[in-house]
Each structure stands twice: as structure tokens, then as C-alpha cells.
Amino acid sequence: MNVKDELRAKARDVEAFLADCLNHRNIPERLRAAMDYSLMAGGKRLRPVLVLVWAELLGLDPEAAMPFAASLELIHTYSLIHDDLPAMDNDDLRRGKPTNHKQFDEATAILAGDGLLTEAFGLMLSAALPPERVVSAAQAVAEAAGARGMVGGQVLDMQYTGKDAVSLEELKTMHSMKTGALITVSCLAGAILAGASAEDLGRADRYGRAIGVSFQIVDDILDVVGDEKTLGKPVGSDQGNDKTTYPKLLGLEESKRQAEKYRDKALECLAPYQGVQADFLRALARYIVDRVQ
Predict the structure, then answer these.
(1) Which range has the worst mean pLDDT, 87-91, 99-103, 257-261?
(2) Superfamily of domain 3-290
């Protein structure tokens, strides 16, 4: 089984949980429909899979981590709904379907995002694991998703849009917050939930940071050289929105080299580990970059 098939197989378990996680919650029908519309629209389910794989690598039954893992997908989905809004990226397509505000309306899309974010923390705290681990992991997610992480990164993204002379360091900082923080904390949360040592927590954190950077660089490259059918969203939207990207600053070839450099950093973090979960994480780090080879 190649890494794409393994990722799909792991994602199917997440999909099954997500399909049921909002049931019996007494959510108004239209709001529930909007939340489900984006939550069940597909996607790689990378973030929850990272939680599950790191948890299992470090000795925890992944089933015990599933509620927490799924919460990362709710947070990621809320961020996509809000990113697509006219006040932000103003996108019409997401995963090959009309964006949430196009399918419903702007107010409903905003509230669907709010609902997913709030439900995510309830889901996290429902994990039947030692309370100190759950609280510690939830605290890490709150920081990664909030003003010091993903939300702050989105603000920087808006500030930098259309701005001349955005530096490489500014771009790295923005992406480490907007995209990288949630990927990193997915790895870290899995390790925390497993009761990992300080050394293992450090490796999970560094692996997440490295693949987060390579993931964003590749995303920027695909916005230039990808195709809409494969990506499920318009190609060239970054250029159309006058955003600073890695290819814009470094060119395509140097951007590819940078993605490879961070892939190698991720692989270094996995040196102490053996077994199927470690092998999957290695293959995943390679696959992220191989998408533009």
C-alpha cells in the first residue's frame, strides 16, 4: 500500500467518526446543514491522521485519541469556511464544490464556522484519557488555533496581501502561524495524549513544524503549476489576490529546493523510531514534496 492509499485508509476511520460526531446535538437544522456541508466535503484529513499516528507511535490506542483527533478537522474546516469569505480570500470553490457562503449565505457561513470551532473544544474534552493529558493537549491546540497561531497568521496574510517588499522571514512567520501551527500541534497533541517523554514531544513538534513548512511551500507551487480539477479550487488565486508566495519571492526551482530541505528536517526527527507508524510518517513527509516533482 502506498502512502496515498494509507492516508485514505486512515482518513476513512476519521470520516466515519466525523459523520456521527454532530448527531444528537440539538443544532438548528440550517446551521447543522451548513456545518456538515463543509465538514463532510472530503479532504485528506491530514491533521486528525497526524494526531492518531503520533499517538499510536508513542504507545496509545488510536481509538482513544479519535475524539480529540477529529476536533482538529472541525477547527481546520471552520478556518476554511472563514478564509473563503468575501472579506478574506473571496473564493467560490473549495474541494470542487461551491464554498459555504455560496451554497448558503455569508451570515450562515460565519456561524457554521463559529459552531464548528466551539464544538471542536467540546469534542476534545470528551476524550476518555487522563485529564491532565487532555487539558495539556487542548491548551496547545487553543494556542495554535488562536491569536498567536492560525488566526494571527490570517491577519498577517491580509496585511501582506498587495504589499510590496514582504520579506522571506515575514512570509515564513505568517505561514508558520496560519498553516503550520495547526499541523504542528496535531503531531504534538498526539504525543501529549500518549504521555510522551520530553524528547518525544520535541521530536513530534519539530516534525510538525518541518512538514508544515514544506506543505505550505508545495501549496504555493501548486497554485502556479497545478490544475483546478486535482486541487478542487481555482489555480492562480494567490497571484490574482496579489499574495506574496514562495515562488514569487524565490522562484519555482528554489521553492522546490526549500521544500526538500524541510522534508529532510522532518525525516531527521524520525531517526529514533521504527515500525509501521514511523514508516508512514516518513512516507508522508516525502509525499508532501513529491506532489510537485
Answers:
(1) 87-91
(2) Farnesyl Diphosphate Synthase (1.10.600.10)
